[in-house]
Write a structure and sequence with these properties.
mainly alpha, disordered C terminus
């Protein structure tokens, strides 16, 4: 008798979309909490922010570099001449360097370094909260996107929220505080990711290929230089001396989770919900990460953090709602076109 192979369950697009949204929000929220707990010197972490960035790039490279090499070979086999870089990045050298500098290297260095100075509550407001602001401004400048009055109000609320959080930290700098340094790094990290997003949109990049490209650039530029400086003792690092389990955890979460898995689930979420609804979903991240910082990290929730969190979240939702009708119309047209193609 011939054995009947088991039938694998097939999930509906709705199930996949909702699951992808849940995974994306959980990873983005956990990224803020885990990065703060790992990079904060007061919590006794053995790895420095630069060590954690190293682990992130190593972890992502283990999966994405072989994937990139495979795509490059596939393109060559199909006589597709879109360009590649070093046989690893499926994008041209110029595009790989431009998007990789912002999305692969500078973002990681600034974000992780910020957690060494500022608490996760500040990151909850300034890191995901500043992203729509920088993206809108860069898109208006580079892509000639129009900022509607509704979006302008939303961006104004975000600016006000950032000022409420960062302004208080800046005032405390006169008393010797260093939290403002972390705040600036968070905003700089958000700016870098916004630059990457706008460039990816400008070049019309595929999400997987773009993620592979930024990882390739970071791996080629950062990993050998940091390894050399560490092994020669020119910088104080612990990535090669810390317990293996600590390094492995960062490699798995920061590299596989934050880069690979969330990159895939974020793309799936956009495919089902569309970019505007997806932005509304990710607007949950500031509030959830702030709640997690209070619950799991014991951080105090001061009045300015509450005000900044409310203003930033309201700004994101207000700006998205202002552009929702046109976006839904565009998404419906796109769905009709793609559906008619089978």
């Amino acid at each position: 008798m011939t054995a009947i192979p088991p039938v694998l369950p097939r999930f509906s697009p709705r199930t996949i979309g909702i699951a992808s949204a849940v995974v994306t929000v959980l990873i983005w929220t956990s990224f803020i909490l885990i990065a703060r707990a790992s990079a904060d010197p007061a919590r006794g972490g053995l790895l420095s922010p630069l060590d954690i960035a190293y682990c992130r790039i190593v972890g992502a490279s283990l999966i994405l570099l072989p994937w990139g090499a495979y795509l490059v070979r596939q393109d060559l086999a199909r006589s597709i001449r879109n360009g590649s870089w070093l046989g690893l990045s499926p994008l041209s050298a110029r595009i790989t360097v431009s998007v990789g500098l912002f999305g692969g290297l500078l973002y990681a260095l600034l974000a992780y370094s910020g957690f060494a100075y500022a608490p996760a509550l500040h990151a909850s407001v300034l890191l995901p909260g500043s992203l729509p602001l920088w993206t809108a401004l860069l898109a208006a400048w580079l892509l000639r996107d129009r900022i509607t009055p509704g979006r302008a109000i939303g961006l104004g609320l975000i600016v006000l929220g950032d000022l409420v959080v960062g302004g208080v930290s800046l005032l405390r700098a006169f008393d010797g505080g260093q939290v403002w340094l972390g705040d600036l790094m968070f905003m700089g990290g958000a700016l870098c990711w916004a630059a990457y997003s706008v460039l990816a949109r400008h070049y019309g990049l595929n999400a997987v290929r773009a993620t592979i490209a930024i990882t390739t650039f970071a791996a080629v530029t950062y990993l050998p230089v940091y390894s050399l400086l560490t092994l020669t003792g020119m910088i104080q690092a612990h990535v090669f001396t810390a317990p293996f389990k600590d390094v492995l955890f960062q490699v798995l979460f920061q590299g596989w989770g934050s880069v690979v898995i969330s990159g895939i689930t974020f793309t799936q979420m956009i495919r089902y919900f569309g970019p505007v609804r997806s932005t509304m979903i990710t607007a949950l991240v500031p509030g959830l990460s702030a709640f997690g910082a209070v619950l799991f990290l014991g951080e105090p929730l001061h009045w300015n953090l509450i005000a900044g969190l409310v203003l930033v979240t309201a700004g994101i939702l207000f700006g998205v709602r202002a552009s929702l009708p046109n976006a839904i119309k565009k998404e419906a047209i796109y769905a009709t076109q793609t559906g008619s193609r089978g």
